């Protein structure tokens, strides 16, 4: 890739009058040796899987094998149909879609890791709900995924996207930043505004620990995806309104690296701290250990 930082990415896109999505497609094609058409087709197939996951999460039984989670997306949608959500219908739908995809993941369904399975609901939640709301074409959405990919590339190469390395800020936080920056571009924002959206989003998730109850990607992961989608919408709106990340986004990524590196091991996907070690969390763990695997019975 011809860029290593978000500042470089925005500068190169501005200089060439390209969007982040178009530029990333070009860069990906050059690096892989595959044609732009081939790369676009692959990303388009990924978007189809995201759409399928949202639909499944809203219409099918998503009860996880553990029995701990499932159908919360459907509960949110049903509540929103009965009375007005405090968030409003648009943000509420994004939240429900994000929950839906995360529940599909927990129930062993097919998802796209964006950037990880633990944060798989945020980008589909934001993208599919906004596509429905603004009437964007699938082609626009696929370029949006390339924009999100460019942002994720910078984060992964300057910090981390793994909860085991940097806590949930590295998974859910990165996904929020990727979704916010891409949405800013989809709504007509400049490359610089898209980059500001990333910084605004990441600052709001710094220090978020990874504390999966029972070691499963369910509690609190699924709920964090729902909240993450709402945060991404807010960050994009701030950036489009002209709000800037006073601390440059690349420096915010550097702070994420610093915070994650100093985070205690018990708060990095080990289920040895945080919510996983509350009295209820420990009780759930004990019950899971006693529960036979349904596939073995």
Sum up the overall morphology in one term. globular
* Classification by helices and strands: mainly alpha
Taken in chain order, the helices and strands follow as HHHHHHHHHHHHH
List the domain count as a whole number.
1
Number of strands: 0
CATH architecture: Orthogonal Bundle
Strand fraction equals: under 5%
Instruction: Give the termini separation.
Output: 50 Å
List unreliable stretches of 5+ residues.
Answer: none
CATH fold descriptor: 2-methylcitrate dehydratase PrpD
Please state the average pLDDT score.
97
The helicity comes to 55-70%
User: Which CATH first-tier class would you pick?
Assistant: Mainly Alpha
Q: Using only CA atoms, what is the Rg? A: 19 Å
Helical segment count: 13
Q: How would you describe the overall organization of this protein?
A:
It contains 13 helices and no strands. It is mainly α and 297 residues long. It has one domain (6-290): 2-methylcitrate dehydratase PrpD (Orthogonal Bundle). Helix 7 (138-158) packs antiparallel against helix 9, helix 9 (168-186) packs parallel to helix 11 and helix 10 (191-203) crosses helix 11 (221-240). It is globular, with a radius of gyration of 19 Å. The model has no long low-confidence stretch (mean pLDDT 97).
Task: List its traits.
297 residues, mainly alpha, 2-methylcitrate dehydratase PrpD, 13 helices, 65% helix, 0% strand, globular
Task: Summarize this structure briefly.
With 297 residues, this protein is mainly alpha-helical. It has helices at residues 6-15, 20-32, 36-59, 72-82, 89-106, 122-134, 138-158, 163-166, 168-186, 191-203, 221-240, 249-262, 279-290. Helix content is 65%, strand content 0%.
